[in-house]
Amino acid sequence: QGDPLRAPDITVNAWRCPPSEGCSVDTLQAAVEAQAAAGIMMVVGADSAGPNCSTMENPPSIYAASYTVSALITGTDNVASFSSRGPVIIDGSNRIKPDISAPGTNIRSSYNGSDNDYASLSGTSMATPHIAGAMALLWCGRPELRHNIAASRTALNEAAHFLAYKQCGTPGPPNNVVGWGRVDMSAAVPAPS
Fold first, then answer.
1. What CA–CA distance (Å, rounded) separates 111 from 134?
2. What is the CA 129 to chain-centroid distance, rounded?
3. What is the pTM for the complete model shown?
C-alpha cells in the first residue's frame, strides 16, 4: 500500500545476487524492469570480477533495464583492473555492458567502524554513486528528462567522453569495458551563457 508520490527518483545498487545466494539470472529482472517502467532510474555497479571478458554474470548488473557502471582509475581514463566486463553471456543475450563509467579507485567513503568513520575504497560500488549523482544533476539541469529513463540514459551516454577499448569486442561506442565512456556532466548539461 505504498504511496507512489513518495517513490525515489533514483536508486543505487552496488551489490550482486549470485547463484550461491539463491539467485538465478532472472531472479530480479521483473523488479528492475518495473522500477524503470515507473520512471525510477536504477544505477547499478558492474561487479568487481574483472579483468576478463564476460565477468558480468550476476543480477542486477546484467539487465538491459539496469544502468550499469564500470570503474575507472581515479584521475585517468583507464579502466580499473577489477571492473567487470561484458558481453553478458550468462543469460544468452550477448548484451553489451557496462553502460557508462566513472572514477572508482581510492574514493573517500563512509565506513562501518563508527558513526564518523571514513575510508578510501575502490570498486565499481565506488563508481556507481557518481552516476546516480550525475543523473540527479541531469534532471535538475534538464527537468524535462526527469523520469524519462530512455531519454536520460541517451543524454548521459551521448555526452560521455568516449574511450575506445577493443578488449571484449568492438571498440564501440559503446563497448564491453567502459560502455559509452566516462561521464561528462559539462557536456550533458552545458552551463547557461
1. 23
2. 8
3. 0.93
Helix, strand, or coil (residue 33): helix
Using CA atoms in the order 112, 115, 120, 122, what is the torsion angle rounded to 10 degrees?
A: 40
Long-range contacts of 143-146 (CB under 8 A, 24+ apart): 146/9, 146/39
Task: Assign 158 a pLDDT band (cuts: 50, 70, 90).
Answer: very high
Distance between CA atoms of residues 15 and 143, nearest Å: 29
**β-pair partners for 175:** 179
pLDDT per position as a tens digit, 10-31: 999 888 888 888 889 998 999 9
Q: CB-hemisphere CA count at 13 Å for 152?
A: 30
Grade residue 37 by pLDDT with cuts at 50, 70 and 90. very high
pLDDT for residue 89 is more than 80? yes
120: left (phi over 0), alpha (psi -120 to 50) or beta: beta
- Residue 173 corresponds to which cell in the numbers above? 561506442
